[in-house]
Specification:
CATH superfamily of the domain at 71-179: Band 7 domain
CATH topology of the domain at 71-179: Tetrahydropterin Synthase, Chain A
CATH class of the domain at 71-179: Alpha Beta
CATH architecture of the domain at 71-179: 2-Layer Sandwich
Radius of gyration: 46 Å
Keywords: Coiled coil
Number of strands: 9
Largest sheet: 4 strands, antiparallel
Low-confidence stretches: none
InterPro entries: Band_7 (IPR001107), Band_7/SPFH_dom_sf (IPR036013), Prohibitin (IPR000163)
Shape: rod-shaped
Distance between the termini: 183 Å
Coiled coil: 190-217
Organism: Bacillus cereus
Mean pLDDT: 80
Protein name: Band 7 domain-containing protein
Number of helices: 7
Order of helices and strands: HEEEEEEEHHHHEEHH
Helix content: 40-55%
């Protein structure tokens, strides 16, 4: 009798333990901003995904969570080459999310890989390819003159590459490219030359303005003198002489009296 009780208690205990283990193994937590793709070992990928929260899942099913809210991913630095063959080191980051409706497709394409594996592998490769393609259309000087335009072109091409798979790219951020020492020196030389040229152009324009101003002033003075000249009649000339006379009469040498003819 005691043996039966012991055996019964053992069976019950084992059942409870097994049930507890299976229950623990069957609980899956989906974090906020994520959705879970369920893979059934007997029937394959399930169409319905799991939302955030706690879920009881059969231990014979595997759940992989993917972000469906915006995630920021930073890409390691890598080298690109410009149209004129200059090497540059670039660093980028991008914001993206997974299309919730295409999660089963993503899971199937990448054979259940975790999101970070996809980000550091397939997605990173596509972003690098888009970056290389865009930089090959610009010279090294154009890169620094049109960085915003280049950033937009990379974002557009990257989005086009990954959108159909189910990755929704929100934005791409390109940091300032870094040239090697020789390229940086060459760029600075060109920049200095351009600045000197611009300075010379400004000085030339200022000299032209000053010359035109001097010509206008000289023309104005000449015209004024011409007007005065035309306005001087013999009577006015005599009046001007009288205005300048100091009141002294002309003297003849050797005579005490001024030279005046009286008629």
């Amino acid at each position: 009798m005691n043996t039966k009780k012991i055996v019964g208690a053992a069976v019950v205990g084992f059942s409870l333990l097994t049930g507890g283990i299976l229950t623990a193994m069957s609980v899956k937590v989906i974090d906020q901003g994520h959705a879970g793709v369920v893979y059934n070992r007997s029937t394959g990928i399930e169409k319905e995904t799991l939302g955030q929260g706690w879920h009881l899942v059969s231990p014979f099913k595997r759940v992989t969570a993917y972000p469906i809210s915006t995630e920021t991913v930073k890409v390691d630095k890598f080298s690109v080459q410009t149209k004129d063959g200059k090497p540059l080191t670039v660093s980028l980051s991008y914001d993206y999310m997974n299309d919730a409706e295409k999660l089963p497709k993503i899971y199937n394409k990448f054979k259940g890989q975790a999101p970070d594996v996809i980000e550091n592998g397939w997605l990173q490769t596509r972003l690098k390819k888009a970056t290389l393609n865009v930089f090959s259309n610009y010279s090294v000087l154009e890169v620094f003159q049109h960085q915003g335009e280049i950033n937009g072109a990379i974002e557009k091409e990257f989005r086009k590459m990954v959108d159909t798979i189910g990755f929704l790219v929100d934005s791409v951020t390109l940091e300032a490219p870094k040239p090697d020492a020789n390229t940086a020196k060459a760029i600075q030389g060109v920049v200095d030359a351009q600045q000197n040229l611009e300075k010379a152009e400004i000085e030339k324009k200022q000299a032209t303005i000053n010359a035109e101003k001097a010509i206008e002033e000289a023309r104005g003075k000449a015209e004024a003198n011409e007007i005065i000249k035309k306005s001087l009649t013999p009577e006015i000339v005599e009046i001007k002489k009288i205005e300048k006379w100091d009141g002294k009469l002309p003297q003849v040498s050797g005579e005490a009296n001024p030279m005046i003819q009286v008629k």
